[in-house]
Design a protein that fits this description.
mainly beta, Immunoglobulin-like, six-stranded mixed beta sheet, 2 helices, disordered C terminus, Zona pellucida sperm-binding protein 3, membrane, disulfide bond
C-alpha cells in the first residue's frame, strides 16, 4: 500500500507541502513538494500511519513510530536506518514512541530521478531486527519502506518565510540532468516521424537528431559520427561510417550518393541529414542498425573543426558547412579533424524499446550521447520482383 504520509483520519489522502519548521504543515495547491511512501512490507495495523515524511527545501524529515508493525511491540532505534548509506536517526521522541531522521536531499545514499514534471529524490527506511535473547530465533522480519520526495520542476516551492541556501531547482537541474538526446527517421517532407522502418534501395533515409534544451542555456547540436552495422552488436567487424571526423558526412563523396546535411537548420538544437539507402554487400541480411554520437556546444560558440556539420558539394568539389566559415571543413578532405578515426568511441545499446534504443554515455555533464536507430529493413528491387504487363496491341 502506498500512501501520502499525511493522510486524513477518514482515509482521504492529500498531498502536503512543508512550511516553516518541522511540525508546521499546511496544504499547498499543486504544484508543491510532496512525499510518497510505500508501507506494503509493514502490513501495519496501527490506526495512524507508522512513517511520516516532510519534504523540505533542502532536506527530508522522516518520523517513524516505534510501533512500526501496529502490533504493540516497539522496535528499537538502533534497528532503523535511512538510505543505502544506513544513516542513523537524529532524535527519539520524548515519550520514546517515535524516531526522527533528518537528512539532506543528496545525503544517505539518496538518488535523483528527473521526470518531465518533477525532480524525484528517492531513499528508503530500513528496519533490520537485532536478535534478542536467543540468537537462533527471530520474531520479526526485516522491512524496507521506499520513500520519494517530488519537487515540481515548473514552480518555485520555497515559502516566503524561508531563505534556502541551496540553488534554485532550475539551476540544480542544469548540473544534475543528462541531456535527453534523440534520433528519429522522418517522412519525405520532414513534417513527422516516419512510421515504417522498411526502405527500398534508391530511397532516402531522412534522420533528425535533436536535444531537449528546456532547462539549459541555448545549445547547438552536432552529429559527431554515425556508423551502420548489420547487427545490434557494436563489435561487428562489418561496419560503415557514413558520418565521421567530427561531423563530416563522408558518404556524400561517393559517386552514387547525394547524402547531405539539411541547411539551414530548423533550430540550433536540431540537425537533419539525408542519406541514400544502402545495405551491406555480400550478405543475406537486409538489416542495418545506425549508431550516432551526438554532442552539443553553447549556441553562441562559433563552429570549429571539432564542432561542425559539413557536406560534400560535388558541383564545387568542396566541403560546405551548415553554419560557420568554410575553413572548418577543410579537415574533412584530409580525413583528420583533431582525433584519429572516430572522434568518440561508440557504445553498444543497453535496452530496446519498439525497435529504437537510446543509451546515454555521460561526458562533460551529460553533453554527449550515443543514439541508435534500428533495425531498418533495406530491400533491393530484386527482393520484390515487379510483374510487368506486356504492352497491348
Amino acid at each position: 500500500v502506498a500512501y501520502s504520509p499525511w493522510s486524513l483520519p477518514g482515509g482521504e489522502a492529500e498531498l502536503w507541502g512543508h512550511r516553516g519548521d518541522v511540525g508546521q504543515l499546511r496544504a499547498f495547491p499543486q504544484p508543491s513538494p510532496w512525499a510518497w511512501v510505500d508501507v506494503s512490507q509493514l502490513q501495519a495495523a496501527a490506526p495512524l500511519h507508522p512513517v511520516a515524511v516532510q519534504c523540505q527545501e533542502a532536506q527530508v524529515v522522516v518520523t517513524v513510530r516505534r510501533d512500526l508493525f501496529g502490533t504493540g511491540r516497539l522496535v528499537r532505534a538502533v534497528e532503523l536506518t535511512l538510505g543505502s548509506a544506513a544513516c542513523l536517526p537524529m532524535a527519539q521522541g520524548s515519550a520514546g514512541t517515535a524516531v526522527t531522521f533528518v537528512a539532506g536531499l543528496h545525503e544517505c545514499g539518496s538518488t535523483l530521478r528527473v521526470t518531465p514534471d518533477a525532480l524525484v529524490y528517492s531513499t528508503s527506511l530500513n528496519y533490520k531486527p537485532v536478535p534478542a535473547g536467543n540468537p537462533v530465533i527471530i520474531r520479526t522480519s526485516p522491512a524496507v519502506v521506499p520513500i520519494e520526495c517530488h519537487y515540481p520542476r515548473r514552480a518555485n516551492v520555497s515559502s516566503n518565510g524561508v531563505k534556502p541556501t541551496w540553488m534554485p531547482f532550475r539551476s540544480t537541474l542544469s548540473s544534475e540532468e543528462k541531456l535527453p538526446f534523440s534520433l528519429h527517421l522522418m517522412n519525405d517532407d520532414w513534417s513527422a516521424e516516419r512510421i515504417s522502418p522498411v526502405f527500398q534501395l534508391g530511397e532516402v533515409l531522412r534522420f533528425q537528431a535533436g536535444v531537449n534544451t528546456e532547462n539549459h542555456a541555448p545549445l547547438r547540436l552536432f552529429v559527431d559520427n554515425c556508423v551502420a552495422t548489420p547487427t545490434p552488436a557494436r563489435s561487428s567487424s562489418l561496419q560503415y561510417a557514413f558520418i565521421d571526423f567530427s561531423g563530416c558526412l563522408v558518404d556524400g563523396q561517393l559517386d552514387d550518393a547525394s547524402s547531405t546535411f539539411i541547411s539551414p537548420r530548423p533550430r540550433p538544437d536540431v540537425l537533419q541529414f539525408a542519406v541514400d539507402a544502402f545495405k551491406f554487400a555480400g550478405g543475406s541480411s537486409n538489416l542495418i542498425y545506425v549508431t550516432c554520437h551526438l554532442k552539443v556546444s553553447p549556441a553562441d560558440q562559433d563552429p570549429d573543426p571539432l564542432n561542425k556539420a559539413c557536406s560534400f558539394n560535388k558541383a564545387s568539389n568542396l566541403w560546405d558547412p551548415v553554419e560557420g566559415t568554410q575553413d572548418i571543413c577543410s579537415c574533412c578532405e584530409m580525413r583528420s579533424c583533431g582525433f584519429a578515426g572516430h572522434s568518440r568511441r561508440l557504445h553498444a545499446p543497453s535496452r530496446w524499446q519498439g525497435g529504437r534504443v537510446r543509451r546515454e554515455q555521460p561526458s562533460e555533464l551529460g553533453r554527449e550521447a550515443d543514439v541508435v536507430v534500428g533495425p531498418l529493413f533495406i530491400h533491393s528491387w530484386q527482393d520484390h520482383p515487379v510483374k510487368r504487363t506486356p504492352p497491348q496491341g
